[in-house]
Amino acid sequence: MTTPTRRPQLNKVPEVTVYFWIIKILATTVGETCADYLNMTLGWGLTNTTYVMAALLLAALAIQFGVRRYVPWVYWLAVTTISVVGTLITDNLTDHLGVPLQTTTTVFAVALVAVFGVWFACERTLSIHTIHTARREAFYWLAILVTFALGTAAGDLIAEQFALGYRTSMLLFAAVIALIAVAHRVVGLDAVVAFWAAYVMTRPLGASIGDLLSAPRADGGVGLGATWTSVVFLAGIIGLVAYLTVTRKDVTPSAVAA
Q: Is the model's pLDDT at 9 over the cut of 60?
């Protein structure tokens, strides 16, 4: 009797398109403003907010690991919740434990290199186009969590160290991402290196956007507040995810053909 073989799962992450980057930036902005909304506006406090969001993240990842292929709402739910948790990790280290931002930035940078090193040693690739095993997916989500924590620490360090203001910080991080894109297309920077470098930088970019929109006008912001900023950006995420669910514009070719 022939032993049935387990059907391999399809790539579990979306194609990197303009929609990917737009939703990623929206999610990073929500990571900043939603954490502030729960922590300060609702008065949950940093500890309770961390417990609740960590539980939601575990639930979202359980669903993500349970599906066999890329499902837009499942994937982006995990990204959005991990964005909030990554922010809270850095906030807890800084605000509760008093760890300097220079230290957290260095530690998370080293941790990210370590994750990539172990990932590559085990799988011989860091490409997001081959996330079709549970182990690769575990490395992928661990790397994403560290990038959010690193991006939060590095963004806060730059903002506090140089006191650039929200608009200037936003333009600075956008310029760095643009330079990465130019280096990839013109100079030939490796696609995997360019992707992860840009991925890290979208976190402080999204945080700068969130701070600019939510902060009071007296502090240099637009004055929307954390509540409305979170609502508007969450609505944007939901709308784009619904669009991608219908059109499948971000499904990898192998998954479309399956």
A: no
